[in-house]
Amino acid sequence: MLTTDVSPPAALSRRSGAVHVTAAQMGAVGGVLAVVAGAVFDVRPPEAYGLCMACHARDLVNWTLNDLAGTHLTVAPASVVFPVLTTVGVLVGALVGAARSGEFHWRSAENSLRMFVYGALVMMFALLAGGCAIRLLLRTAAGEALGMSGFGGLIAGVTCGTIWLRWRATR
Amino acid sequence: MTAAVATLMIGVILGYLGQRSRMCFIGGVRDFILVRDTYLLKGLFAFGLTAWLSFPLADVLVGTRSGPPGMSDIVTLGLTVAGGFGVGFLSTLANGCPFRQHVLAAQGARSSIAYLGGFMVGAVIFHTAIAPLLFRLLP
User: Fold this and answer.
1) A-to-B residue pairs, Cβ atoms closer than 8 angstroms
2) Quick one: CA dihedral B114, A159, A93, A75, positive or negative?
3) Do A28 and B27 contact (CB within 8 A), yes or no?
4) Staple partner for A18: which of A101, A155, B16, B35, CB 3.0–4.6 Å?
């Protein structure tokens, strides 16, 4: 499991023309755009809803199902008329980035079922907490006490998960 | 409709930057614990810092901010902390936060595509089964 690329700058593609972006730069742009989405482009209510991979994916899936199958699944007020499309945008943007830098490769999946279960569980826990990692941080930045406690839980979870992975790798 | 177009554009920008920077919102803490690498952690801090500075700025410039978030009861608090813990723990095992999984899926990682399949199914399961059950069980 410990196959993570831990030193990204060294591993970045050096292909000519590939744009180099650091995580700090991406984070800074993301923080501004997440607030702008909520304040300027009406991605609300709820508050601090400008960027969330889990809630926005939920809105898109549930809205589509409601529209096609006539179900009445929960959708955030911001997505009632038409769903937010953050997840689609991220997929398109990352595809463009990967294609332009020659980093797009089909990679085999030997553990698809386990990843499928991880995806389902992460989504459920994220909806329970009211946001994925990004939105918990966004709510923390907005000064919401509930968001801060969720973010605290997230950091504790990552710490425990990392210690668990290290313990299993060195056993 | 404005929100849909805006989030699509913002998603494209962040997806591109996320692919180029390999940004992951849980990887920062993981890398720091494992090898004291702060590359991703800087991204996490940068996001939180700029968002924290942008919220009051947006209030002044746009002048739209609802009142302070409502008080929450102990049950909501417990569920939020438990949810956050679950997201953190399972995302670490899955090797990336939901954002990173979207980027990896767009780079052709079939395991991340399977993850996204589970992600969508999980949303439907949560709202058809788990949320109604919680409403019935909890006060």
Assistant:
1) 481
2) positive
3) no
4) A101
**Chain position carrying tokens 């991340």:** B112
**ipTM score here?**
0.91
Q: Which two tokens stand for residue A121?
A: 């569980």
Pairwise CA distance, residues B58 & A110, whole Å = 46
How far is the alpha carbon of A171 from chain B, nearest alpha carbon, in Å? 16
Query: Residue A59 in contact with residue A79, Cβ under 8 Å?
Result: yes
Q: A124, B130 in Cβ contact below 8 A?
A: yes
Tokens of A64: 């589509």
Q: A interface mutation test: which of B13, B14, B35, B110 has the most A CBs within 10 A?
A: B14
Q: Is A5 helix (H, G, I), strand (E, B) or coil?
A: coil
Give the residue carrying structure tokens 């930057």. B17
Q: Give pLDDT tens digits for B76-116.
A: 889 999 999 999 999 999 999 999 999 999 999 999 999 99
Token output for A68: 């096609």
Enumerate residue ranges in chain A where pLDDT < 50: 1-2, 4-13
Tokens 């990679």 sit at which residue? A107
Whether A41 sits inside 8 A of B2 (CB atoms) is yes
Helix H or strand E encompassing B1? none
